[in-house]
Amino acid sequence: MSLVDIEKLSAEALVAQFILESKDKGLFLSYLDYDFIHLWLKEAGGDVDLVLLVLSEILPDYFKKREQKSTSPLKFIHTAVIKKIRQAQCVI
After folding, report:
1. 66-73 mean pLDDT
2. Is 2 part of any domain?
């Protein structure tokens, strides 16, 4: 459950909140993680729903594999996210 009103969030903040709730630990992301979010949104043409859809496919396995680690930087999934965004855009 989120304490944030998602209706009032920017695209970057909405994706960040989704990531935080998906990993179920931590209260914030690193500056570098926000840079990746910005790149993903740019690649998706600002389509936040597309980014969220791609992340919903990738994040569960990623966080499960890294549950024993203290951090889970988004740089490790960046290439996979970009690839899935591009694949989705080809289908549309």
Report:
1. 74
2. no
User: What's the chain's Rg over C-alpha atoms?
Assistant: 13
Q: Does some domain include residue 1? A: no
* Residue 50, number of CB atoms within 10 A of its CB: 19
pLDDT in tens, 11-53: 999 999 999 988 877 678 999 999 999 999 999 999 999 999 9
Residue range of the domain that includes 76: 7-91
75 has pLDDT over 80:
yes
Number of domains in the chain: 1
**What is the DSSP track for 8-76?**
G--HHHHHHHHHHHHHTS-S---HHHHHHHHHHHHHTTT-HHHHHHHHHHHHHHHHHHTTTSS---GGG
